[in-house]
Amino acid sequence: MQVKLVEMTSEEFQNFISFEMEHYADEHIKSGNWKPEEAMDKAKAEFETLLPDGKDTENNHLYTIRNGDKEVGVIWLAQTSAEKGFIYSITIWEENQGKGFGRKAMEELETLARELGIKHLGLHVFAHNTIARDLYEKLGYKEKNIKMEKTL
After folding, report:
1. Strand 84-92 to strand 3-7: parallel, antiparallel, or no bridges (unpaired)?
2. How many other CB atoms are found less than 10 A from the CB of residue 84?
C-alpha cells in the first residue's frame, strides 16, 4: 500500500463537492438534525460559507487520496488558526473501505498538518458512524464535547 495525498484537480474538486454536499445532507438527515426537504439547501449554504472560492479558498487543503495511481478517496483540511486545523471531511470510496486507506490517509494528513505548523487537529464525526469513531479513537483523537438528544 502506497498512500499519498495529492492536491485535487478542478475536475476532482467538482466531483468532490457534488458528492460531499449530498453526503453531508444525508448524514444530517440520518442524525435527525435536518428534515429531508431542507437538507440540500442547508448543506449548500454551509459549503458556500466554508469554501467561498472553491478549491482555491485560502487556508483550505483539499486532497485526493491515492494508492499508487488509483483514487481511493478524498480528504479536506482547513487551517483555522496558526496552530489549529480542522478535518472537514475524509471519505474513502466504498469499494476501498476496510483496507487501511483511512488510517494511512489520516497519518499522511497529520504529517502535512505538522509541516503547516498545526499543533492541534480537530474533526467532527456523526455519532452513528461507529467505524469512523473507532478509527479516530485508535489514532489518538479524544472526545471534547458530546451532544445528546431524545426524541419524544
Report:
1. unpaired
2. 15
| C-alpha of 115 from chain center | 19
Residue with cell 502535512: 112
Lowest mean pLDDT segment, chosen from 22-26, 113-117, 125-129: 125-129
Q: Within the chain, what is the greatest distance between any pair of CA atoms?
A: 50
CA–CA distances in Å: residue 127 to residues 31, 67, 130, 143: 8, 29, 7, 11
Which cell goes with 78?
A: 482547513
- The enclosing H or E element of 108 equals helix 101-115
pLDDT confidence of residue 124: 85
Residue 150: the pLDDT is: 65
CA 101 – CA 2 distance, rounded (Å): 9
Domains and CATH numbers, the chain: 3-138 (3.40.630.30)
Q: Can you tell me the mean pLDDT for 71-87?
A: 96
Q: By three-state DSSP, how is residue 12 classified?
A: helix
Identify the pLDDT of residue 127: 77
Mean pLDDT of 126-145: 84
Contact 117, 83 (CB under 8 A): yes
